[in-house]
């Protein structure tokens, strides 16, 4: 029975992954508003009914796509971390890696960075949104840690308001890119 459950779970995960990948292609090509569940179902080679068994709405599917993209971006930032000698060097390195992700995956970067507009919608709730917030939190916590390290080692001025600086730096960089 256990192996049967495992097989079924793998099949379910495979179908879910195929749906998310098809949706990602459609959202990247058309944007959220112009994307249709019919087209996503066609690309995933499932019925629309099957899509709705996995995702209750187009918004929920969109958030699953963004969560995947956010995870890829944060993994990219963390995997490429270089050992800098001071906090300022770590901040510079983090933004260099952010730019590297943008250059490597510009469409995914736009999709991920545009999620904040969707977050303001009334239907932006649930585990998908919470997972995205968790992933973005990793980004902000890492940057705040580098800023604090720089304040301690003297490479960044000691009177910096860390939380304000983190948000300002990230939003400025994302807006610039």
Task: Give a quick summary of the entry.
With 177 residues, this protein is mainly α.
What features would you describe in this structure?
With 177 residues, the chain is mainly α. It contains nine helices and no strands.
Distance between the termini: 51 Å
- Tell me the number of strands: 0
Share of helix, binned: over 70%
- Strand residues, percent: under 5%
Q: What overall geometry do the principal axes of the alpha carbons give? A: elongated
SSE sequence, one letter per element: HHHHHHHHH
Major sheet attributes: none
Number of helices: 9
The helix-and-strand class reads: mainly alpha
Regions with pLDDT < 50 over 5+ consecutive residues? none
Radius of gyration using CA atoms only? 19 Å
Roughly what is the average pLDDT, rounded to an integer? 87
Strand and helix layout:
Layout (H helix, E strand, L loop, with lengths): L1 H33 L2 H8 L3 H7 L3 H22 L7 H18 L1 H8 L1 H5 L7 H27 L8 H15 L1
List the defining traits of the structure above.
elongated, 177 residues, 9 helices, mainly alpha
